[in-house]
Amino acid sequence: MVSLSKDDVVRRMSEALKAGGKMLAHTCPVCGNPLFDIKGEMRCVACDKPVVVVRDQAESGRALLPIVLSSLEGVVVEKIDELTGRLAGLVDLSEIEETARTIDSLLSVLRKSEEIRTAVKQKEQ
Ligand SMILES: [Zn+2]
Known about the structure:
Shape: elongated
Number of domains: 2
Order of helices and strands: HEEEEHH
Number of helices: 3
Oligomer: single chain
Distance between the termini: 32 Å
Helix content: 55-70%
Bound molecules: zinc ion
Strand content: 5-15%
Number of strands: 4
């Protein structure tokens, strides 16, 4: 995680306020800075992430899961894109096979992540 100077945090907070955000009584579980309500979403301007406020520590891991999974999916998609580009230029059969296998496992990570996220969402409803 990128650590910001206090000035940076203050600047981001004032930007959030200028943009119509509201400072909330809750604090960020990660950095301890006050959270903002920005267009109906609770965000930490210091971490630059949406934050889900939970009642206790036991729930916090689970609340974080969809956020973690969606950033995982972003990374996986980037890697698949990268490997697809590389695959196009390959001629060596074993390299093609290895790259295809890697793409295959990335795709199953993606599918599992989506499955878990859907399951979590359904449980909440
Ligand atoms: Zn934070």
